[in-house]
Amino acid sequence: MRRSVVAIFLCFVVQVAWGDLKIEITEGISGAVPVAIVPFGTGGGTEPSEDVAAVIAADLARSGRFAPIDRNDMIQMPTSGQGIRFGDWRILETEAILVGKVLREASGYVIQFQLYDVYRGAQLLSYRISSAENDLRRAAHQVSDMVYEALTGERGAFATRIAYVSATGKGEQQRFRVVVADADGENPIVIANSRDPLMSPAWSPDGRQLAYVSFENERSEIYIQTLATGERQLAGSWPGVNGAPAFSPDGRRLALTLSRGTGNLDIFVLNLVSGRLTQVTWHAAIDTEPEWAPDGRRLYFTSDRGGGPQVYEIELGSDKAARRTFEGNYNARPRISRDGKSLATVFEDRGNYRVALLELDSGNLQVLTNGQLDESPSFAPNGSMIIYASEAGGRGILAAVSADGRYRQRLTATEGDIREPAWSPFL
Amino acid sequence: MRHLNLVFLGMTTLLLAGCPRPPEVPPDPPPTEIPETMDSGVSTGTVSAPAPRALDPFEDPDNPLSKMVIYFDFDQSTIRSEFVDVVNAHGRYLARNKDKRVRLEGHADERGSREYNIGLGERRAQSVRRMLKLQGVSDAQISTVSYGEERPAVEGHSETSWARNRRVEIVYR
Hints:
The complex is a heterodimer.
Chain A: E1 21-27, E2 33-37, H1 52-62, E3 66-68, H2 86-91, E4 96-105, E5 108-117, E6 122-132, H3 136-152, E7 161-168, E8 175-182, E9 189-194, E10 198-203, E11 209-214, E12 221-226, E13 232-236, E14 242-247, E15 253-258, E16 266-271, E17 277-279, E18 287-292, E19 298-303, E20 310-315, E21 321-323, E22 331-336, E23 342-349, E24 352-359, E25 365-367, E26 375-379, E27 385-392, E28 395-402, E29 408-413, E30 417-423
Parallel strand pairs in A: 2-3, 2-4
Antiparallel strand pairs in A: 1-29, 4-5, 5-6, 7-8, 7-30, 8-9, 10-11, 11-12, 12-13, 14-15, 15-16, 16-17, 18-19, 19-20, 20-21, 22-23, 23-24, 24-25, 26-27, 27-28, 28-29
Helix pairs in contact in A: 1-3
Chain B: H1 3-17, E1 69-71, H2 81-96, E2 102-107, H3 114-134, E3 142-148, H4 159-165, E4 167-172
Parallel strand pairs in B: 2-3
Antiparallel strand pairs in B: 1-4, 2-4
Helix pairs in contact in B: 2-3
């Protein structure tokens, strides 16, 4: 099902349902827990618009932690707890079973479901959620989140979205787009479309806005676009460079990179409420790519003040930046994990550019990816996975790796290059 | 990109003109028939001399003004010695022609992070700008923009491609 968006853009054309992403799991699922996600019943009504159980099974498989049983191997297909014959499922060595129904309601659907621990025969969850007519897929992702949390103790991130940049065509046909899709790559919606480069999509903490850089006026400028309406405001159009927008955790400020016509890049914070601009770095080096610490009082950023790009940290209001990366000649574009304890960076590893994870306390650095031109890491809001830009077959693709490096996936577009992924907050 | 037309025109002229043959000249008119006359005087016909054609310096491959792209070493923004004449030639031209303006478009190769590469492109554009100003070009005549790695001149993932993407393009407006 494609979700259509009615929006009014300034100078941009909306395209709906453009270029699905294809996902493949490239590594992992050894040690994944076998679970049964039984096809949901319909109570005899018309077929719902989504195969809810299939969406849930795909979500859980994609996390790398679960191995859903193939439907063809299911001995029975109960749609409620009373119908489950636990003995049968124990033979299949399933550890958990999810059963349910998707029922029609006046304004849309109701999903009712139960999750059981197979070995103890104990119910873990019993729930009903409603959804609007065309929101069934999102409701299925919400069920995945609840199942994931019940089984792992961690919050799920299946009902989230990703933004990314797409580049297609050459010469006069070249087009750049900012796309927003579900976290599984479905329902891609083009929110900005230009003949000139678009860069650096960044989510507001409430998930309602995206900031991005656009060259549509023959120079870099920063726009903030409201997703529901398509309206956007010009947030940064100082002379020279306007780049690397980042919303503060409270959503009221935007960190950004400006040169203000001096030719020197520094980091600034723009108060989105008052319009006041504060300069944060004052160095002749390239200072860019600000990332807020979770406390909203410090910024991590890239600076080459020490010779080559490294990650530094500065407390707002102070003028002393502390270097945080000491391994390797190149560390850039820091992204902080949810718990504030690790930084993902673009790291140069013997001529290859890869995503590395730095544990801030210990200083331990682990290289997580193995490409040649990997960049743009972004954490899932539950910290379980890192999505990043990579390359395969000469084309730009997205890839995701679990935070411990054990599970990998790849997301490829049907045409062109995709890059600069940004994972939304919890929605 | 508007300035590419200028480069293409320059290259086409190069192909047509050859190197280093003088420019094409119209063929000499055939000698006038001299009628036999009883007159013992000698008539002479005239042959027109080839008129020298002045080449537009921007299209003259021998003129540094025809070069519009400055290339840089990896992670560097210093102008290499082989490009100093080129930048200075544009500088002198602009200093003498105060009504002319240029935009310096800075670029980086694709390696590493994108916003940092915007910084590298800007640094390179500023480098060319400073050198132009030393020749007397005024601020009002120069604007800069950095595209980082977003507008490569050449596709490809090898040093050969990267070297051709680390550049500043001088675009007359």
